[in-house]
Amino acid sequence: MPRLADHRRATMGRHARALCLLLSVCAIPLFAFTRLAHAEPSTVRVALVQAASDAPFFIAEKKGYFAQEDIRVDFLILRDMIASLGTGQLDVGGTSTSAGLFNAVARGIDIKIVSDKGSTPLGYDYQPILVRKDLVTSGKVKGFEDLNGLNIAAFNKGSASMSTLNEALTKVRLKLSDVNVVYMPFPQHVLALQNRAVDASITTEPSATEAISSGAAVRLSAADIYPDHQLAVVLYSGDFVKKNPEVARKFMRAYIRGARDYNDALKDGKLAGPRADEVIAILTQYTAIKNPEIFRKMTPNGVDPNGRLNMASLRKDLQFYRDQGLIVGTVSVEQAVDNSFVEAAVKDLGSYVRMSK
User: Fold this and answer.
1) What's the CATH number for 42-121+229-349?
2) What architecture (CATH level 2) is domain 129-219?
3) What is the rounded distance in angstroms from the CA atom of residue 266 to the CA atom of residue 352?
4) What's the rounded Cα separation, in Å, for the pair 146 and 127?
5) Which tens digit of pLDDT belongs to each residue from 88-123?
6) 55-62 and 276-286 helices cross at what angle (nearest 10)?
7) Measured between alpha carbons, how far is 168 from 147 in angstroms, rounded to an integer?
8) 135: Cβ–Cβ under 8 A, 6 or more apart, which residues?
9) Where in the chain is the domain with CATH 3.40.190.10?
């Protein structure tokens, strides 16, 4: 009997050791899976230019849409981001279209326009032409035809805003050469109008509302100058697309959700829709404008709730840049655009349904 008991104890001991070994081996992939499930979020470096059309990025960040995609966003303000996107120092950029962007693509720099960021559907002309109030009060300026010979502030020579100015002048049979354009960043336009350093400005929000609220300027015309103008876009660097395609798709899903919330804040050419209070609170937190009344007064930009680009507008502006002698080499809009990310996002998210109340 003692020998049988000893044999059983020895057998049970061997079985126990074998079971422990098996469990320890099985625990390796389980532990690895646990670590994978709790991996650090992917960091995406995003450059913006401090424009009103940055809103969908900030909404997506504040409401946790990026976090839900396991993305941590590093925002930075950078006026000229093309070079940094081309070298892969940045992943995403939000800026206006420009001759410089198309020239970069023509030179083989790997950058793609992937989504709408700011456009001008009817009633949402967020890039107006302003004129000093004293010039209007005196009767010197009554319409676009009176811009002849005046000093006009603009962003830069090859920007999309110059195409807008060209449209306004063309309507009254004037040319860009008939005005004196002074280039400076948008926020400086307000001070230049207040100091009478310029007579007029082709600017953007919220600078436009700041200039008007200060009494320095008025809108030259309430009519839309260039309807559905594709002014601002989202850019992806080639490295981001190639090395992190899944993160790029996730980023776009989060961005489109932010754009849809932004659309729910729009009504009758103002931030007056069902989500207006929420969106304005986010903008006052993330931008330099801390007075919510500025956002309530301003004319906001449009942005497609599905992120889709106005290809016809991009082609029109590219031709404008060519006509101005600003394009070096051969390039097409199709070379510069990659629609696959917005299409994948819309497929995942479904059709946009506007919030009713």
Assistant:
1) 3.40.190.10
2) 3-Layer(aba) Sandwich (3.40)
3) 14
4) 19
5) 999 999 999 999 999 999 999 999 999 999 999 999
6) 100
7) 10
8) 141, 199, 200
9) 42-121+229-349, 129-219
